[in-house]
Write a structure and sequence with these properties.
This protein is mainly beta. It is about 5% helix and about 60% strand. Strand 14 and strand 15 form a beta hairpin. The N and C termini lie far apart (about 55 Å). The N terminus is likely disordered.
Length: about 290
């Protein structure tokens, strides 16, 4: 009974919203550039096969503070182009949270815990036609709230992009679809989300381009609506500036926030950083393209 009380208390502390939610970290995007665009990513070029590279290796570091809990996310990603229309990728994300004090139902201190979580994702991106892209991701999620209390859970993402012309694309996706994650005392829904998005990239003049992206989504398990809006300016394919806003109704895994970022790009290396107004959240990233 005491262990059940402890787990209930931890799950009440970990959520990013009022209703108990498990593994909210899987809903936080790992791409700093997408975070800087307010989280809009469904129809962006990131979800297409590699262009001009055979191998892409990257890492993102994200610090997120919400409801007095520090989320310390590290994402390592690798993508390999098998064919011009097909690539396979592996993402491994770890989340180490700050030490928390536990109390029982009578308010007595019971000790501390240092929760840790992991998500390993294998993704396949396939473009059967120049105007069509499909993406499928399988995930393994592990969440350890204490040394003796942990849960494992599978999940999938599935989505597609349709390029209307060389400038505009639309997309749709279902993310984090899977069974409840169960720590042994009842299941908690994953933050499964259905989204649609539109993306556009337009040339203003030689070396000057504007981008815009809008995603609309819903998280049925938590009766939450989500909107992500982002815009960007790129100079000479080398310097990119990003601005965005993420709007979420009450009960969502992520809060509403505004965001901004700056990214430097080259033929073989990208580096950049994003800042979000959600409790001083920031993210840094690096990509190596071979």
């Amino acid at each position: 009974m005491i262990r059940r009380i402890v787990i209930s208390i931890i799950l009440a502390l970990l959520p990013l919203a009022a209703r108990a939610q498990a593994v909210p970290f899987v809903a936080i995007l790992h791409s700093s550039e997408n975070l800087a665009m307010g989280g809009a990513h469904i129809a962006t070029p990131d979800n297409s096969p590699l262009s001009g590279a055979i191998v892409e290796i990257g890492a993102d570091k994200i610090y997120w503070r919400r409801n007095a809990i520090n989320y310390n996310l590290t994402n390592y990603a690798a993508r390999v182009g098998i064919l011009p229309s097909l690539c396979v990728g592996l993402d491994v994300t770890t989340n180490a949270m700050e030490e928390m004090t536990l109390y029982n139902e009578n308010g007595q201190r019971m000790g501390t815990t240092l929760a840790s979580e992991l998500c390993a994702a294998l993704n396949v991106t396939y473009a059967p036609l120049p105007t069509t892209v499909f993406r499928l991701t399988g995930k393994y999620i592990r969440s350890a709230l204490t040394d003796n209390d942990y849960a494992n859970c599978p999940a999938v993402d599935i989505g597609g992009i349709w390029k209307i012309n060389g400038q505009i694309a639309v997309g749709a996706a279902i993310e984090n679809l899977g069974p409840d994650i169960d720590y042994g005392y009842g299941g908690y829904p994953l933050p499964a989300t259905a989204k649609v998005g539109v993306y556009g990239r337009f040339s203003l003049a030689e070396r000057h381009e504007l981008e815009a992206a809008v995603d609309l989504g819903a998280m049925p398990s938590y009766a939450t609506a989500i909107a992500s809006i982002g815009t960007g300016y790129t100079f000479n394919d080398m310097l990119a500036l990003r601005l965005g806003a993420h709007l979420c109704s009450a009960g969502g895994v992520l809060p509403s926030y505004f965001s901004a970022g700056i990214f430097f790009k080259s033929a073989i290396f990208d580096v950049g950083a994003a800042y979000l107004t959600a409790s001083g959240t920031y993210s840094i990233s690096a990509r190596l393209k071979l």
